[in-house]
Design brief:
This protein has 4 helices and 2 strands, in the order H-E-E-H-H-H. By secondary structure, the chain is of the alpha+beta class.
């Protein structure tokens, strides 16, 4: 009869040690896939995998999640504020054009 090997807590400790080392040192895998035809983006895939503690990631200068509007409320707020500024400028231009048209109509009559 074959002997069965018993798993001990030392094997779990080894896994915990490996995880601790990975979080302490950090592992980053990043990749971008972009398919373009005549400067028109057909497909754009950004892959970011970070396995590290947040402190270690910041120490390494990796903080992309802070500027990503899907992951950070501050970044999303900044995007919304930028969009609002652009929309206000467009609205002001449209109102000015409307006034010019109204003046032109008054002069034509």
């Amino acid at each position: 009869m074959a002997e069965q090997k018993m798993m001990h807590a030392t094997e779990a400790t080894n896994l915990a040690d490996i995880l601790e080392r990975v979080l302490d040192k950090g592992i980053v895998i990043a990749g971008d896939i972009k398919i373009q035809i005549a400067d028109i983006d057909l497909l754009n895939i950004k892959i970011r995998l970070l396995i590290a503690s947040v402190d270690k990631a910041l120490e390494m200068g990796i903080n992309w999640w802070q500027q990503d509007s899907y992951l950070s409320t501050k970044a999303k707020q900044a995007d919304i504020e930028q969009e609002n500024r652009e929309l206000k400028k467009k609205l002001e231009r449209n109102e000015e054009l409307k006034k010019r048209l109204e003046r032109a109509e008054v002069k034509a009559t």
